[in-house]
Protein backbone atom coordinates (compact mmCIF):
# COMPACT_ATOMS: atom_id res chain seq x y z
CA UNK A 1 0.00 0.00 0.00
CA UNK A 2 0.99 3.62 -0.42
CA UNK A 3 1.04 5.71 2.74
CA UNK A 4 3.35 8.36 4.19
CA UNK A 5 3.48 6.15 7.27
CA UNK A 6 5.97 4.00 5.37
CA UNK A 7 8.52 6.82 5.42
CA UNK A 8 7.62 7.72 9.00
CA UNK A 9 8.33 4.15 10.08
CA UNK A 10 11.92 4.60 8.91
CA UNK A 11 12.44 7.01 11.83
CA UNK A 12 13.75 5.14 14.90
CA UNK A 13 11.84 7.56 17.16
CA UNK A 14 8.57 7.22 15.25
CA UNK A 15 5.30 8.42 16.76
CA UNK A 16 2.98 6.12 18.70
CA UNK A 17 0.25 6.10 16.02
CA UNK A 18 2.67 4.92 13.34
CA UNK A 19 4.03 2.30 15.72
CA UNK A 20 0.47 1.10 16.35
CA UNK A 21 -0.40 0.32 12.74
CA UNK A 22 3.03 -0.97 11.71
CA UNK A 23 3.14 -3.42 14.61
CA UNK A 24 -0.37 -4.74 13.95
CA UNK A 25 0.04 -8.23 12.43
CA UNK A 26 2.96 -7.23 10.17
CA UNK A 27 3.19 -10.71 8.60
CA UNK A 28 -0.49 -10.73 7.72
CA UNK A 29 -0.36 -7.18 6.45
CA UNK A 30 2.66 -7.82 4.22
CA UNK A 31 1.03 -10.99 2.92
CA UNK A 32 -2.12 -9.04 2.05
CA UNK A 33 -0.05 -6.42 0.23
CA UNK A 34 1.86 -9.06 -1.74
CA UNK A 35 -1.31 -10.91 -2.69
CA UNK A 36 -3.26 -7.85 -3.74
CA UNK A 37 -0.34 -6.28 -5.63
CA UNK A 38 0.47 -9.56 -7.43
CA UNK A 39 -3.13 -10.09 -8.55
CA UNK A 40 -3.43 -6.50 -9.71
CA UNK A 41 -0.07 -6.66 -11.51
CA UNK A 42 -0.93 -9.82 -13.43
CA UNK A 43 -4.44 -8.71 -14.37
CA UNK A 44 -3.26 -5.25 -15.42
CA UNK A 45 -0.64 -6.72 -17.74
CA UNK A 46 -3.25 -9.17 -19.07
CA UNK A 47 -5.58 -6.28 -19.81
CA UNK A 48 -2.91 -4.36 -21.73
CA UNK A 49 -1.64 -7.27 -23.85
CA UNK A 50 -3.03 -7.65 -27.39
CA UNK A 51 -5.82 -10.20 -27.69
CA UNK A 52 -6.65 -12.84 -30.31
CA UNK A 53 -9.58 -12.26 -32.59
CA UNK A 54 -9.03 -8.54 -32.98
CA UNK A 55 -9.11 -7.24 -36.52
CA UNK A 56 -5.60 -6.55 -37.82
CA UNK A 57 -6.56 -3.18 -39.23
CA UNK A 58 -4.04 -0.43 -39.63
CA UNK A 59 -3.26 1.29 -36.36
CA UNK A 60 -3.98 5.01 -36.46
CA UNK A 61 -1.82 7.63 -34.87
CA UNK A 62 -2.07 7.46 -31.10
CA UNK A 63 -3.81 10.26 -29.26
CA UNK A 64 -2.56 12.10 -26.22
CA UNK A 65 -5.41 10.64 -24.15
CA UNK A 66 -4.48 7.05 -24.99
CA UNK A 67 -0.84 7.80 -24.15
CA UNK A 68 -1.81 9.23 -20.76
CA UNK A 69 -3.98 6.19 -19.96
CA UNK A 70 -1.05 3.91 -20.77
CA UNK A 71 1.29 5.94 -18.55
CA UNK A 72 -1.18 5.72 -15.66
CA UNK A 73 -1.17 1.94 -16.00
CA UNK A 74 2.64 1.87 -16.13
CA UNK A 75 2.85 3.91 -12.90
CA UNK A 76 0.45 1.47 -11.23
CA UNK A 77 2.47 -1.53 -12.45
CA UNK A 78 5.77 -0.11 -11.16
CA UNK A 79 4.15 0.91 -7.89
CA UNK A 80 2.78 -2.61 -7.42
CA UNK A 81 6.25 -4.05 -8.10
CA UNK A 82 7.63 -1.78 -5.37
CA UNK A 83 5.01 -3.03 -2.91
CA UNK A 84 5.78 -6.67 -3.72
CA UNK A 85 9.53 -6.15 -3.28
CA UNK A 86 9.20 -4.19 -0.06
CA UNK A 87 6.73 -6.61 1.53
CA UNK A 88 8.76 -9.63 0.42
CA UNK A 89 11.91 -8.30 2.10
CA UNK A 90 9.84 -7.41 5.16
CA UNK A 91 8.59 -11.00 5.42
CA UNK A 92 11.76 -12.80 4.37
CA UNK A 93 14.27 -10.89 6.51
CA UNK A 94 12.65 -9.87 9.80
CA UNK A 95 16.04 -9.45 11.48
CA UNK A 96 17.16 -7.06 8.79
CA UNK A 97 14.02 -4.93 9.22
CA UNK A 98 14.35 -4.97 13.02
CA UNK A 99 17.55 -2.93 12.73
CA UNK A 100 15.49 0.05 11.55
CA UNK A 101 14.31 0.56 15.12
CA UNK A 102 17.86 0.73 16.46
CA UNK A 103 18.80 4.32 17.34
CA UNK A 104 22.38 5.25 16.36
CA UNK A 105 22.87 1.85 14.72
CA UNK A 106 25.97 1.24 12.64
CA UNK A 107 24.19 -0.67 9.84
CA UNK A 108 22.77 1.87 7.41
CA UNK A 109 21.32 -0.64 4.90
CA UNK A 110 18.04 -1.31 6.74
CA UNK A 111 17.26 2.41 6.88
CA UNK A 112 18.40 2.85 3.28
CA UNK A 113 16.09 0.08 2.14
CA UNK A 114 13.23 1.48 4.22
CA UNK A 115 13.57 5.00 2.82
CA UNK A 116 14.31 3.91 -0.75
CA UNK A 117 11.40 1.48 -1.07
CA UNK A 118 8.96 3.92 0.54
CA UNK A 119 10.07 6.74 -1.78
CA UNK A 120 9.72 4.46 -4.83
CA UNK A 121 6.13 3.58 -3.96
CA UNK A 122 5.19 7.16 -3.10
CA UNK A 123 6.82 8.61 -6.23
CA UNK A 124 5.12 6.20 -8.64
CA UNK A 125 1.65 6.56 -7.17
CA UNK A 126 2.07 10.33 -6.88
CA UNK A 127 3.03 10.43 -10.56
CA UNK A 128 -0.07 8.37 -11.30
CA UNK A 129 -2.19 10.98 -9.53
CA UNK A 130 -0.64 13.76 -11.59
CA UNK A 131 -1.18 11.80 -14.81
CA UNK A 132 -4.82 11.30 -13.87
CA UNK A 133 -5.16 15.04 -13.39
CA UNK A 134 -3.48 15.60 -16.76
CA UNK A 135 -5.99 13.20 -18.31
CA UNK A 136 -8.88 15.33 -17.04
CA UNK A 137 -7.18 18.50 -18.33
CA UNK A 138 -6.41 16.88 -21.68
CA UNK A 139 -10.00 15.63 -22.06
CA UNK A 140 -11.30 19.15 -21.61
CA UNK A 141 -8.72 20.63 -23.98
CA UNK A 142 -9.44 17.99 -26.61
CA UNK A 143 -13.10 18.94 -26.94
CA UNK A 144 -11.98 22.57 -27.04
CA UNK A 145 -9.54 21.57 -29.81
CA UNK A 146 -6.63 22.97 -27.84
CA UNK A 147 -4.72 19.75 -27.18
CA UNK A 148 -2.80 17.17 -29.13
CA UNK A 149 0.21 14.92 -29.06
CA UNK A 150 2.45 17.99 -28.80
CA UNK A 151 1.04 18.75 -25.35
CA UNK A 152 2.21 15.40 -24.00
CA UNK A 153 5.68 16.90 -23.53
CA UNK A 154 4.22 19.53 -21.21
CA UNK A 155 2.35 16.83 -19.31
CA UNK A 156 5.59 14.88 -18.84
CA UNK A 157 7.37 17.95 -17.50
CA UNK A 158 4.56 18.80 -15.11
CA UNK A 159 3.90 15.25 -13.90
CA UNK A 160 7.42 14.01 -13.28
CA UNK A 161 8.70 17.41 -12.21
CA UNK A 162 6.01 17.94 -9.57
CA UNK A 163 6.08 14.31 -8.42
CA UNK A 164 9.85 14.33 -7.88
CA UNK A 165 9.89 17.81 -6.35
CA UNK A 166 7.13 17.09 -3.82
CA UNK A 167 8.52 13.67 -2.94
CA UNK A 168 12.07 14.95 -2.35
CA UNK A 169 10.85 18.02 -0.49
CA UNK A 170 8.60 15.98 1.81
CA UNK A 171 11.31 13.43 2.56
CA UNK A 172 13.92 16.12 3.16
CA UNK A 173 11.68 17.93 5.64
CA UNK A 174 10.76 14.69 7.40
CA UNK A 175 14.34 13.49 7.87
CA UNK A 176 15.86 16.88 8.68
CA UNK A 177 18.46 17.22 10.14
CA UNK A 178 19.11 13.45 10.16
CA UNK A 179 17.26 10.15 10.03
CA UNK A 180 17.85 9.49 13.71
CA UNK A 181 16.28 12.78 14.79
CA UNK A 182 13.22 12.88 12.52
CA UNK A 183 9.67 12.79 13.86
CA UNK A 184 10.62 14.90 16.90
CA UNK A 185 7.51 16.96 16.29
CA UNK A 186 4.65 17.54 13.88
CA UNK A 187 6.63 20.29 12.18
CA UNK A 188 8.61 17.46 10.55
CA UNK A 189 5.69 15.22 9.69
CA UNK A 190 2.97 17.64 8.53
CA UNK A 191 4.86 18.98 5.45
CA UNK A 192 5.60 15.40 4.46
CA UNK A 193 1.94 14.40 4.65
CA UNK A 194 0.87 17.53 2.76
CA UNK A 195 3.24 16.83 -0.13
CA UNK A 196 2.06 13.21 -0.22
CA UNK A 197 -1.68 13.86 -0.22
CA UNK A 198 -1.73 17.11 -2.24
CA UNK A 199 -1.98 15.39 -5.67
CA UNK A 200 -4.54 12.90 -4.32
CA UNK A 201 -6.78 15.70 -3.04
CA UNK A 202 -6.25 17.62 -6.29
CA UNK A 203 -7.67 14.69 -8.27
CA UNK A 204 -10.60 14.32 -5.88
CA UNK A 205 -11.52 18.01 -6.16
CA UNK A 206 -10.46 19.12 -9.65
CA UNK A 207 -11.14 16.04 -11.80
CA UNK A 208 -14.92 15.90 -11.21
CA UNK A 209 -15.17 19.58 -12.16
CA UNK A 210 -13.12 19.10 -15.33
CA UNK A 211 -15.00 15.93 -16.26
CA UNK A 212 -18.35 17.69 -15.80
CA UNK A 213 -17.29 20.56 -18.04
CA UNK A 214 -15.95 18.11 -20.61
CA UNK A 215 -19.27 16.24 -20.73
CA UNK A 216 -21.12 19.53 -21.25
CA UNK A 217 -18.72 20.48 -24.05
CA UNK A 218 -19.17 17.05 -25.66
CA UNK A 219 -22.94 17.51 -25.69
CA UNK A 220 -22.49 20.86 -27.44
CA UNK A 221 -20.16 19.31 -30.01
CA UNK A 222 -22.54 16.46 -30.76
CA UNK A 223 -25.46 18.83 -31.17
CA UNK A 224 -23.49 21.15 -33.42
CA UNK A 225 -22.17 18.40 -35.65
CA UNK A 226 -25.43 17.94 -37.58
CA UNK A 227 -27.69 20.46 -35.90
CA UNK A 228 -29.68 17.72 -34.16
CA UNK A 229 -29.19 15.55 -31.09
CA UNK A 230 -30.09 12.00 -32.13
CA UNK A 231 -30.31 8.88 -30.03
CA UNK A 232 -26.82 7.86 -31.16
CA UNK A 233 -25.33 11.14 -29.97
CA UNK A 234 -27.22 10.89 -26.70
CA UNK A 235 -25.92 7.39 -26.05
CA UNK A 236 -22.38 8.37 -26.96
CA UNK A 237 -22.49 11.33 -24.56
CA UNK A 238 -23.87 9.08 -21.83
CA UNK A 239 -21.10 6.54 -22.34
CA UNK A 240 -18.41 9.20 -22.09
CA UNK A 241 -20.03 10.49 -18.92
CA UNK A 242 -20.20 6.95 -17.54
CA UNK A 243 -16.55 6.41 -18.33
CA UNK A 244 -15.55 9.47 -16.33
CA UNK A 245 -17.80 8.31 -13.51
CA UNK A 246 -16.12 4.89 -13.44
CA UNK A 247 -12.67 6.48 -13.29
CA UNK A 248 -13.61 8.62 -10.31
CA UNK A 249 -15.44 5.74 -8.64
CA UNK A 250 -12.32 3.55 -8.83
CA UNK A 251 -10.19 6.37 -7.49
CA UNK A 252 -12.51 7.03 -4.54
CA UNK A 253 -12.79 3.33 -3.70
CA UNK A 254 -9.03 2.77 -3.75
CA UNK A 255 -7.94 5.89 -1.83
CA UNK A 256 -10.76 6.99 0.48
CA UNK A 257 -9.51 4.50 3.08
CA UNK A 258 -6.16 6.34 3.12
CA UNK A 259 -7.81 9.64 3.98
CA UNK A 260 -9.94 8.02 6.69
CA UNK A 261 -6.97 6.17 8.14
CA UNK A 262 -4.77 9.26 8.17
CA UNK A 263 -7.49 11.30 9.88
CA UNK A 264 -7.87 8.67 12.60
CA UNK A 265 -4.12 8.37 13.17
CA UNK A 266 -3.66 12.13 13.41
CA UNK A 267 -6.46 12.21 15.96
CA UNK A 268 -4.68 9.53 17.97
CA UNK A 269 -1.41 11.46 17.76
CA UNK A 270 -3.12 14.43 19.40
CA UNK A 271 -4.02 12.34 22.45
CA UNK A 272 -1.71 12.09 25.49
CA UNK A 273 -2.05 8.30 25.56
CA UNK A 274 -3.42 6.43 22.53
CA UNK A 275 -3.85 3.24 24.61
CA UNK A 276 -6.66 4.67 26.74
CA UNK A 277 -9.91 2.68 26.77
CA UNK A 278 -12.11 5.49 25.37
CA UNK A 279 -9.94 5.40 22.24
CA UNK A 280 -10.43 1.69 21.63
CA UNK A 281 -12.94 2.15 18.80
CA UNK A 282 -10.68 4.74 17.14
CA UNK A 283 -7.74 2.35 17.30
CA UNK A 284 -9.83 -0.48 15.88
CA UNK A 285 -11.09 1.68 13.02
CA UNK A 286 -7.53 2.80 12.24
CA UNK A 287 -6.30 -0.80 12.13
CA UNK A 288 -9.20 -1.94 9.95
CA UNK A 289 -8.68 0.84 7.42
CA UNK A 290 -4.95 0.06 7.49
CA UNK A 291 -5.64 -3.48 6.26
CA UNK A 292 -8.18 -2.19 3.72
CA UNK A 293 -5.49 0.11 2.32
CA UNK A 294 -3.22 -2.88 1.79
CA UNK A 295 -5.94 -4.50 -0.32
CA UNK A 296 -7.35 -1.56 -2.30
CA UNK A 297 -4.28 0.59 -3.05
CA UNK A 298 -2.53 -2.01 -5.25
CA UNK A 299 -5.81 -2.95 -6.97
CA UNK A 300 -6.07 0.51 -8.52
CA UNK A 301 -4.05 -0.58 -11.58
CA UNK A 302 -6.40 -3.38 -12.58
CA UNK A 303 -9.59 -1.48 -11.72
CA UNK A 304 -8.43 1.48 -13.78
CA UNK A 305 -7.94 -0.73 -16.85
CA UNK A 306 -11.53 -1.92 -16.40
CA UNK A 307 -12.70 1.68 -16.25
CA UNK A 308 -10.54 2.66 -19.25
CA UNK A 309 -11.05 -0.28 -21.60
CA UNK A 310 -13.55 -2.68 -20.06
CA UNK A 311 -12.72 -6.37 -19.77
CA UNK A 312 -10.50 -7.23 -22.76
CA UNK A 313 -10.59 -11.01 -22.31
CA UNK A 314 -8.19 -13.85 -21.59
CA UNK A 315 -7.03 -14.83 -25.08
CA UNK A 316 -3.63 -13.18 -25.44
CA UNK A 317 -2.07 -12.79 -28.88
CA UNK A 318 1.65 -13.42 -28.41
CA UNK A 319 2.46 -12.61 -32.02
CA UNK A 320 2.53 -8.93 -31.06
CA UNK A 321 0.67 -7.75 -34.12
CA UNK A 322 -0.17 -4.12 -34.33
CA UNK A 323 -3.72 -3.59 -33.25
CA UNK A 324 -6.03 -0.68 -33.74
CA UNK A 325 -6.86 1.34 -30.68
CA UNK A 326 -10.66 1.22 -30.36
CA UNK A 327 -12.67 4.37 -30.76
CA UNK A 328 -10.26 6.01 -33.20
CA UNK A 329 -12.31 7.50 -36.02
CA UNK A 330 -11.46 7.53 -39.69
CA UNK A 331 -8.04 8.91 -40.54
CA UNK A 332 -7.52 11.98 -42.62
CA UNK A 333 -6.42 9.79 -45.53
CA UNK A 334 -10.03 8.63 -45.93
CA UNK A 335 -11.04 12.14 -46.80
CA UNK A 336 -8.07 12.57 -49.11
CA UNK A 337 -9.05 9.55 -51.24
CA UNK A 338 -12.16 11.41 -52.47
CA UNK A 339 -14.32 8.35 -51.92
CA UNK A 340 -17.37 10.59 -52.22
CA UNK A 341 -16.41 13.27 -54.77
CA UNK A 342 -18.71 16.20 -55.33
CA UNK A 343 -20.29 16.62 -58.77
CA UNK A 344 -18.13 18.57 -61.15
CA UNK A 345 -20.80 21.18 -61.70
CA UNK A 346 -20.75 22.33 -58.07
CA UNK A 347 -19.86 25.92 -57.63
CA UNK A 348 -16.52 26.47 -55.90
CA UNK A 349 -18.01 28.26 -52.91
CA UNK A 350 -20.42 25.37 -52.21
CA UNK A 351 -17.57 22.89 -52.56
CA UNK A 352 -15.37 24.87 -50.15
CA UNK A 353 -18.23 25.18 -47.68
CA UNK A 354 -18.84 21.44 -47.69
CA UNK A 355 -15.11 20.78 -47.40
CA UNK A 356 -14.87 23.00 -44.32
CA UNK A 357 -17.97 21.40 -42.81
CA UNK A 358 -16.59 17.93 -43.42
CA UNK A 359 -13.26 18.90 -41.87
CA UNK A 360 -14.95 20.39 -38.82
CA UNK A 361 -17.14 17.33 -38.41
CA UNK A 362 -14.13 15.06 -38.73
CA UNK A 363 -12.27 17.07 -36.08
CA UNK A 364 -15.32 16.73 -33.84
CA UNK A 365 -15.39 12.97 -34.40
CA UNK A 366 -11.70 12.72 -33.60
CA UNK A 367 -12.15 14.72 -30.40
CA UNK A 368 -15.03 12.50 -29.29
CA UNK A 369 -13.17 9.32 -30.20
CA UNK A 370 -10.16 10.31 -28.08
CA UNK A 371 -12.40 10.60 -25.03
CA UNK A 372 -14.16 7.30 -25.58
CA UNK A 373 -11.42 4.88 -26.61
CA UNK A 374 -12.26 1.37 -25.58
CA UNK A 375 -15.91 0.90 -26.63
CA UNK A 376 -16.34 -0.63 -30.08
CA UNK A 377 -20.12 -0.38 -30.24
CA UNK A 378 -20.06 3.35 -29.70
CA UNK A 379 -17.26 3.66 -32.25
CA UNK A 380 -19.53 2.06 -34.83
CA UNK A 381 -22.34 4.49 -33.99
CA UNK A 382 -19.92 7.40 -34.23
CA UNK A 383 -18.72 6.25 -37.65
CA UNK A 384 -22.22 5.65 -39.01
CA UNK A 385 -23.42 9.04 -37.86
CA UNK A 386 -20.43 10.91 -39.27
CA UNK A 387 -20.87 12.88 -42.49
CA UNK A 388 -18.04 10.91 -44.11
CA UNK A 389 -19.86 7.65 -43.52
CA UNK A 390 -23.07 9.07 -44.93
CA UNK A 391 -21.33 10.37 -48.03
CA UNK A 392 -22.02 13.95 -47.13
UniProtKB/TrEMBL annotation:
Subunit-structure text: Interacts with heterotrimeric G(i) proteins. Interacts with ARRB1 and ARRB2. Interacts with MLANA.
UniProt function note: Receptor for tyrosine, L-DOPA and dopamine. After binding to L-DOPA, stimulates Ca(2+) influx into the cytoplasm, increases secretion of the neurotrophic factor SERPINF1 and relocalizes beta arrestin at the plasma membrane; this ligand-dependent signaling occurs through a G(q)-mediated pathway in melanocytic cells. Its activity is mediated by G proteins which activate the phosphoinositide signaling pathway. Also plays a role as an intracellular G protein-coupled receptor involved in melanosome biogenesis, organization and transport.
Superkingdom of origin organism: Eukaryota
InterPro entries from the UniProt entry: GPR143 (IPR001414)
Recorded topology in the membrane: Multi-pass membrane protein
Protein name listed in UniProt: G-protein coupled receptor 143
Entry annotated with the keyword Glycoprotein: yes
Bilayer-crossing regions: 28-46, 67-85, 119-141, 153-178, 190-211, 244-267, 287-311
GO biological process, one term: regulation of calcium-mediated signaling
Family named by the database record: Belongs to the G-protein coupled receptor OA family.
Gene of this entry: Gpr143
Alphabetical keyword list: Cell membrane, G-protein coupled receptor, Glycoprotein, Lysosome, Membrane, Receptor, Transducer, Transmembrane, Transmembrane helix
Cellular-component GO terms for this entry: apical plasma membrane; lysosomal membrane; melanosome membrane
Region annotated Disordered, chain positions: 371-392
Compartments reported by the entry: Apical cell membrane; Lysosome membrane; Melanosome membrane
GO MF assignments: dopamine binding; L-DOPA binding; L-DOPA receptor activity; L-tyrosine binding
Main subcellular localisation: membrane
Organism, as annotated: Rhadina sibilatrix
Amino acid sequence: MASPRLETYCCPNRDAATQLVMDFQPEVFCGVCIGSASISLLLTILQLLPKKGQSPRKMPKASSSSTILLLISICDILGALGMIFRSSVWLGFPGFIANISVVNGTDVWPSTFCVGSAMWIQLLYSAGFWWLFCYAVDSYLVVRRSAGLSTIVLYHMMTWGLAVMLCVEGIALLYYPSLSSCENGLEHAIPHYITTYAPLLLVLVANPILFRRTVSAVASLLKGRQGIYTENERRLGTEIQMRFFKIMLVFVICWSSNIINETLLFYLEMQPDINEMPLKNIRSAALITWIIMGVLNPMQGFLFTLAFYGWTGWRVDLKWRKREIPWESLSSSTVGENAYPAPVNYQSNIHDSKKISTTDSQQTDEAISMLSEGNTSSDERLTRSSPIYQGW
